[in-house]
User: Fold these one by one.
Assistant:
Number 1:
Amino acid sequence: MSSTGPTDPTTTRFGHTHYTIRRKVLKLIGGAFTVFDQAGNTVMFADQKGFKLKEDIRLFSGPDMTEELVRIHARRALDISAVYDVIDSKTNVPIGALQRRGMKSVLKDEWWILGDGETQRGAIVEDSMALALVRRFVLNLIPQNFTVTLDGVEVAEMRQQINPFVFKIDLDFSKDPAGRLDRRLAIAAGVLMSAIEGRQQ
């Protein structure tokens, strides 16, 4: 399994340094997610179904959902420390895995990026414990910010935008121009975190 690595240079869809993930806040059941590149073009789209015990999110090339690119699949249902496999839908080859850090994420969100042999290769961590506690127990209007590291090196940032109608996360890979972190895995992490945040709100 390869959780990280350079993006295929022929796939311009995943060769950008900035992306934005938008989730419709007012969707009653499930969630609709659109991923845009820095020019505003649609990179991927997902229409998450509601009432599923095991997370299973399919990311398509566009809203017509005719070409499936990536799928995110939880290994177990109702697991606070769930592991999510991210798989290339066309080749059925694993891209990597993401694990939510259970009880740690109750107070401050933390995810692990898993590599071969289920070893931790990286992490996605909320900016500070103080701000995390304020967001959860005082004021939910403070945007979340995350630092993404790989092999001990910061490679990306995720920044939430506060909007009452649309939940947005900006992904910034400007610190990783060589594409060491597979963009598909990072985008999948952003979509997954947006889905979980939607259920918590």
Note: The longest strand covers residues 153-161.
Number 2:
Amino acid sequence: MLPLKLWRPHLFSGLGLCLGTIAPDLEFILLVERDWTFSHTLAAQSYFTVPLVLFLYFVLVRLALPFWLPRLPQGAPCHFDELLALQVPRDLGGWARVGVSGYIGGLTHIVIDGVTHGNHSGWLVPYLPFLRAPIGLAGGWPLHDVLQVVLSIWFAASACGSWRQIAREHLLWRWRGEAPRRVIPVERAWSRSALGWIFACAVVGFVAGPALRGGIGPVAAIDLAAFGAIAFAFYGFLALPAAELLIRVAWRATVVRPA
């Protein structure tokens, strides 16, 4: 989706597009379930994906990134420091751009799922029966599964290439109309402790995912372990900046409290 941002930077929100592409899957990943209930429908892109994208955009930009950027590696290959240029929209038009971008990302997700899944996410497969044809070179996998792997790799490579261009040319800062600023890193020990916390959360989620459901087969257990690791890591990712914010608020309230 980032090529859209490169094509018309003032029409789209890059972060909104990215969040929109993953939002439909967050219904079951963050709940550590194996399947969705409503998030992959056309209507849900309006009442689920868009509100979720707006919420996540605000939480990430206002709360999470200010905490994590000084604790993450700077420069190549990930260029996390370039995300310092992101800011919360200042007007309704800015929020509309984020919402529309999230909607487009969500629509893209369900359209691609329509031809790459064999379950009820693959809503186009019944109308295109050739997608079920086994592919000999892929060990007999049906074409829709092969497409899922191929398209996932292609989109991931495209996203990485687009982000590399955006970061290398400081485009987020240029689109914002400001000179690039540096992220001031925290002490390495604090950075390692924070990253260790995320790793610990992921490990707990990996174990807790299948344990929470119980009585499941090995394939389901692997799915739930992966979803649990992602979900718990994400919750841990938000928990530290939220805790720091609460501590700061409590400290300020104590300092300014009249004697």
Note: The mean pLDDT is 94.
Number 3:
Amino acid sequence: MEEKPKVLNRKQARSQKVSITDPIMIRDKSNTTHLEVLLQFIPHATGPDQVSPKLTYWKKSKDGFRQGFPVEFTLNQEETAHLRDTLSQGLALAKSSRDGNFLILPLDDASSTELENQDPGTVARALATLLSNDTILSAVQSDPDGKRLLEGIQLSLRTAEMKAAVVELESNLNNLVSKEQIYQVWCEQHNWAFGNAYSMRDEVRTIALGDQVDILMQLTTNRLRDIFELKRPDKESIIFDDGHKSWYWSSETSKSIGQCHRYLDALHEAAAHGLRDNPDLVAYHPRATIVIGRSKDWTEEQHKALHGLNSRLHGIQVITYDHLLAQAKQFLTHLDESM
């Protein structure tokens, strides 16, 4: 029987910042569990909207009523694409009757990893192009199980993705895109731009009742957490006082510093031994980084002023989006040199 087309109702959320669908039921067993997904569409300045699904799960009583509070978590665009590809790869491998190592190659016009649904000529051209390279052919011959080759391909694809992300950030800044949500999504997807000092971003953002940070990041050295707060790039970070001939924090930056001060106190108190619902998330004397404003056309005096003001803060530092962009570019430079 032919499957009927599904109708999705896309509408503005109450916040007016994103569009959403009605909840889509994945599982609904009358007396056990319920799982649903709500699709969120986040506007993007230079491309199509980004998809961020919100999954909600709860247990049900024998009478079919919900028990306790539901469990909710949200995937960003990158994680959604990764889940899609993983499921597609799993469905493709399920059609094989044997176990072993499989090399899955992305095709130019492929919408999935199932090769049997692709044009044989496209598959042949992709493989021929790959193996016509003497370096790759030599690597295949010296690497029978394909592990090193696969690692190299994955690293190359990851590097290309990171370079595209840097171009996207620079384009948004040059085009004077000012929506905070756009930079929030970018930083969530590309937290590597904050440097090797941090190994991962936490999905958890609520640190205490009424306190939700923009980003929580795990330090590479000790797995403790730090806070990152993102403000708009069109706001001033520092201002010059003509009367006293000195630089001082702008009103927007001062508010952010005060906000981070409260967050740091709340996080230290709530997560010194792990958050109640996330015992692995530990923060002990955390620090905060505020990203605000631009510094592309700054003078040496302005850079020194920001450095000096930062040096007088304790546990909080302020950087601009141009500093974040420079960090990302430097990270890629070191990556290219190591390849």
Note: Residues 108-114 have pLDDT under 50 and may be disordered.
Number 4:
Amino acid sequence: MNRTKIFVWEISGAVVISLLGTLLHYLFAFVGEWPPAALIAAVNESVWEHLKLAVWPALIYAFVEWLFLRQSIKNFWTAKAFGILTMPVIITSIFYGYKAFTGRHILWVDISLFVFGVFMGQIISCVLLLRQSIGSKVKILAAILLVLMIAAFSVFTYFPPHYPLFRDAPTGQYGILK
């Protein structure tokens, strides 16, 4: 597989994921708070709901990308799993880190952090896609992590744990179900 082609796919993906994530921020309100839309769209201003804005578009983009690259890359889903997992890890850790330092969140920093996390996830994916082989234990771990991530992002909007990550700061509420 051509290294440049993979790089272009991944960087283009970062742009597409960032734009799609931005649209998903407003989708729930746009569709009149239709409960099924809550699966992929942010339903409140919690950190968790904003992480969905990176994860779901990244998964959607990965499926599209897979249609074009599946014949030439053997470790595609392993690379995607670790790349997609990187996004919420980076976003969450830097968000809480800078918030601890400043005592508040800053909107332009939050938006920049979202885009940075997406780009870093796509770069991790790119690096792993360019590897000739990845061990079977790593592939199994990636599959388990991807399934757990999809399960968590599918369930926790509807049934969120009562932890700060899931709390909507403006209202104090959790998730969509009141």
Note: The mean pLDDT is 93.
